[in-house]
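Researcher: Can you fold this with 2-acetamido-2-deoxy-beta-D-glucopyranose in place?
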Amino acid sequence: MKLGSPKSISAYPKTILPIAASVGGLALFLIFASVLLVYQPIGTKVSGYFYKVDHAPAIGLLSQNETRIIENWVNDTNKKRTAVDLSTNKTVDSDTNMTVEIDTNKTVKTFDIGTSKTADSGPNKIADSGCDLYHGIWVHDPAGPLYSNNSCPVLTQMQNCQGNGRPDKDYENYRWKPTKCDLPRFDPKKFLELMRGKTLAFIGDSVARNQMESMLCILWQASIPSPSFPPVNRGNKRMQRYYFRSTSTTIIRIWSSWLVHKTTESFDFAPEGVDKLHLDAPDETFMGDVPTCDVLVLSSGHWFAKRSVYILNNEIVGGQLWWPDNSRKKKIDSTKAFEISVETVMSALVTSLDYKGLTVVRSYSPDHYEGGAWNTGGSCTGKIKPAVDGELVESEFTNTMHDKQVSGFNRGIKKKTNKSRVAFMDITKPFSYRHDGHPGPYRSLDPNKITKRSADGRPPPQDCLHWCMPGPVDTWNEFLMETIRRDFEAHDS
Ligand SMILES: *[C@@H]1O[C@H](CO)[C@@H](O)[C@H](O)[C@H]1NC(C)=O
Ligand SMILES: *[C@@H]1O[C@H](CO)[C@@H](O)[C@H](O)[C@H]1NC(C)=O
Ligand SMILES: *[C@@H]1O[C@H](CO)[C@@H](O)[C@H](O)[C@H]1NC(C)=O
Ligand SMILES: *[C@@H]1O[C@H](CO)[C@@H](O)[C@H](O)[C@H]1NC(C)=O
Ligand SMILES: *[C@@H]1O[C@H](CO)[C@@H](O)[C@H](O)[C@H]1NC(C)=O
Ligand SMILES: *[C@@H]1O[C@H](CO)[C@@H](O)[C@H](O)[C@H]1NC(C)=O
Ligand SMILES: *[C@@H]1O[C@H](CO)[C@@H](O)[C@H](O)[C@H]1NC(C)=O
C-alpha cells in the first residue's frame, strides 16, 4: 500500500492520546530550535545554525550590538533590492473583488494612507463587515506573495523553504476567498496607519513566531525607504520588540508555550523537573505586559502534546506523557487541559482592569502528517497545491483541539464586560486544505539533507507543522488586519 493513500490515512489510531504522544515528540523535536532562539544568545556555538546566508541572524534575540548586524545586512539587501521586483503593482489591494489582475488605478487609492479611514468606509466595506471570513475557498492568484525570501531579513531558516531548496513555488500563489466577501490583500502601509501609536503582541509558541515573522516580513516592505527604515529590535531575551518609527507602531513577541503558569519544582507526587501547568493561572511572563498592548494575538495548542503535569485547584488532575501510577485515575486529558487553559487566559483578559485592547485567539494550526505521524511515516512530501474537497483529510486530533479551543474561548468570555473586545480567528478549517504550505523536508540549508522517499517508500524527516514563508501563513495576517479594522471601526463609532 502506498503511504499517504486515503486507506492508510483511515487506519490512523482512533484514540487521541497516541497521536498526541507522537505529536508531543514532534513538538519537542521541532520546538527545540525555537526555544533556543528565545533562550540562547546569538553568537555562541549555535550561531552557524541561526545565521542565514549573508550573515543575517534569524529572528533571534538581538542585543543592541547584534542589531547592527541586521542593519548591515539590510543595507546590503537594499542594494540588491533594485534587482528584486518590488513593483508597487504587487501590493495592490483589490478591495472590492478577488481581481488578481493588477489594476494601476486602484494602486493609487490603496496608497492613499492619509484617507485610509474614509476609503475604508465605502458601502462595500460596511456590507462586508459582518461577513464570515473563514468560510470560503483557496483560489489561484498569480499576483504572488507580498515579499520574498530575499526581501525579508527576519526569517527563521526553518521556514525559508525557497532558500532551503524547495523546488516548487506555486503554493505561494493562492489567496483565500471568503464566500460572501473578499479578504483584502494585506496593505502594509494601511496596516501601520491603522496601528499608529499602537502595540501588537504575538504571544505563544513557535507557530506564533511563524505569524509574527510573517507580519514583520510584510511590514518590512512598507518601511523601505521610509523614515522607519529599518525597524529595530529593541527587545530583550524575554521579549522581541520591533518599533516602526514612521507610525510609532510596536510589534512584540513573547514566548509562552501553554499560556498558563508553569513551574518545575516538585509538587505533590510530581517530582522536580517535569513541567507543571497550573491550568487555572495565566502565564505571568506575558500578563504583566498586557496593559501596554492594544492588540494581542494568542496562539497555543501544540505544546499540550508535550510532557507535562496538569494542576487545577492545587491538585494534580492529569499528565501528558507523564503518569507514574496507573492505579490513580487521570481526571483530564491533554485536550481538556488545553480547553481549560484557553478559558483561564480569556477569563483573565476580559476581566482585567488594566487591559482594554482587542484579544484575538488564533485557532489551532493544523499539521499534515499524512499516512502516519511525524515519526511513523507521516509526510507532506510532494504536496504542491492546496487539497480539493475530495482530498481533504480530516484529522480527528486537530478537530478535537479546535473544538476544545472554541469551547474554552466561549467559557472564558462569559465574564466579559461591555468593554471587552475579543475575536476568534478561525483558521483551522481553511488551513486544513494547505498541506502544501509546510517546509516538508526543506527545513534547513544542509546540502546533504534527504528530500526524497527512500527505496522502501519511507519519507524523509520533515516539518509538516510550521509554515513556509512566504506562504499561506501570510494569510493569517490578512485575517488579522481585517479583524483589527473591523474592531477599530466598531469602537471608533
Ligand atoms: C556591546 O558592545 C560594547 C562595545 O561596543 C561592549 O562593551 C559590550 O560588552 C557589548 N555587549 C554585548 C552584549 O556584547
Ligand atoms: C545603513 O544605512 C543607513 C542609511 O544609508 C545608515 O544611516 C546606517 O548607518 C547604515 N547602517 C550600517 C550598519 O551601516
Ligand atoms: C505596474 O504599473 C506600472 C504603472 O504604474 C506599469 O507601467 C507596469 O507595466 C505595471 N507592471 C505590471 C507587471 O503590470
Ligand atoms: C468581480 O469579478 C467578477 C468576475 O470575476 C466580475 O464579473 C465582477 O464585475 C467584479 N465585480 C466588481 C465589483 O469588480
Ligand atoms: C484607469 O483610469 C483611467 C482614467 O481615469 C481610465 O481611462 C482607465 O480605463 C482606468 N484603468 C482601469 C484598468 O480601470
Ligand atoms: C531565496 O530563494 C532562492 C531560490 O528561490 C535562493 O536561490 C536564494 O538563495 C534564497 N535567498 C535567501 C536569502 O535565502
Ligand atoms: C457598560 O457597563 C457600564 C458599567 O457596568 C454601564 O454603566 C453601561 O451602561 C454599560 N454600557 C452598555 C452599552 O451596556
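Model: Folded with 2-acetamido-2-deoxy-beta-D-glucopyranose in place. The two ends are 60 Å apart (CA to CA).
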